[in-house]
Amino acid sequence: MGLFDRFRRPNRGGPSGVRARLEGAMSKRRLRGWNPPLENINTLVASGGPKLLARARELVVTNGYAANACEAFAANVVGDGIKPSSLIDDADLRDRVQQLWLAWTDEADADGLTDFYGLQAMVAREMFVAGECFVRMRPRRAEDGLLVPLQMQLLQSEMLPFEKTGTAANGNRIRCGIEFDLIGRRVAYHFRRNHPGDSTDQRVAVPETVRVPAEDVLHIYRPLDAGQIRGLPHVAPAMVRLFLLDQYDDAELDRKKTAAMFAGFITKTAPEDPMMGEEEADLDGAAIASLEPGTMQVLLPGEDVKFSAPADVGGGYEAFQYRTLLAVSASLGLPYHLVTGDVRQANYSSLRAELVEFRRRVQQLQHGVIAHQLCRPVWARWLETAQLAGRLDLPDPASARMVQWIPPRWDWVDPLKDIQAQVLAMEAGITSRRKVVEATGYDVEEVDRENAVDTARAEGLGLRYRTSPGETQGARATPATRPDPGDGAGGNNGEDAAATGRATTQE
């Protein structure tokens, strides 16, 4: 057989061979009972969304690990706020925009409970618990006295009914409370007028819905699959383990409490004879005895006392807890020590490696979800409203929308090494000073202005610091002009001046 004929032989690894290698698609004995339905994520969320949401909210309230994980999630995703740095070319206009924005953030919340960055934290918590959050833009009247007549109202996931699916009167499709036009664009949201779980605000027997245009609503959620229209709780993969772990801990506590109720057992030869510390019989007729500190009791012939020795939780309890919480942390995508607060088995290298991977995931949420779905639309709407209200004069509104959102700075395990690495990177031209400053969560232009003001104030007071131009490393804050040693002022004159000079140079 020639070489050409050998290439024309039937391929033994054809379709049947490929199927044989797809072990996950086999239907043999081990996998015979594994037949999950091929359902879209929208179907799963629509059918199980209300119950999943109710369980997630209860878990975060009642379970300590879930509550701690929720706070850690929000603190790392948002921190003290993802803040804008305008890219407007005109420096004066850029400063006016930034100052007006900073003043408006205190008025952004329609409920008046927090500021714009506090709303970001609330959105992050809702993403952890419910998987989504709705932000409604609320235009205000001029007589309301706001700097910019615009506020935001946060709406929980329950406000948009999962079961509202059908065809609207205008022919649009409604899916899980969201109205889509014929080409699949979101055109409206059908919100309930009041929360279905709030018994203090049940104004009607069946909560009715109101249609809100899509341009007034921001739907904040992390899309996991293509075409997903509603969010999935971030805590969902860990819910079952957390719930069962709670039950396991409760069972262990109840077992220990029950065992501790029985201190000992007394055996008597004559049941009618009284025994030490005997009290009245309980409801079942069984005598109960009590002991006091320092009691010395002589037992009658034939009597015996056996003390209770309840079984301990066992040596595997700690290992089981650790492995279960590791699985919970992996399901949540959070480091183990952030979920449990346990750093006994951690060191610098393990914490560093864990945080690097975790912060990559956080940066995805910061830039792909919070900044893109929340911050950018709010910035554009705020600029438009500020211009209409006469607060800003924007010659080119399109270019004014150009903005960079700066996430909060990361606090590392060893900040000194990271700062030294950043300084070396700037000196080598690998990165810019702007990038380094923005990595700390601040705007480089704001930092430069503050440094200029500090420098001018220090020079006016005659002070020199290590950050002052021309100062060498190790210089302390001293007056710029020292008194003449020979003018008789300052005690020992030359000796004090010499001592001060030596201390400044050697320090």
Please count the helical segments.
15
Anisotropy-based shape = extended
Mean pLDDT: 82
SSE order, one letter for each helix or strand: HHHHEHHEEEEEEEEHEEHHHHEHHHEEH
Strand content: 5-15%
Roughly how much helix do the residues carry, as a percent range? 40-55%
Instruction: Kindly provide the radius of gyration, computed on alpha-carbon positions and rounded to a whole number of angstroms.
Output: 35 Å
Helix/strand structural class: alpha+beta
Could you give the count of β-strands? 14
For the largest beta sheet, what order do the strands appear in spatially?
4-5-6-7-8
> What ranges have pLDDT less than 50 throughout 5 or more consecutive residues?
472-478, 488-507
Q: Cα distance, first to last residue?
A: 89 Å
Could you give a short account of the major beta sheet? 5 strands, antiparallel
Organism: Salinihabitans flavidus
GO molecular function: structural molecule activity
Protein name: Phage portal protein, lambda family
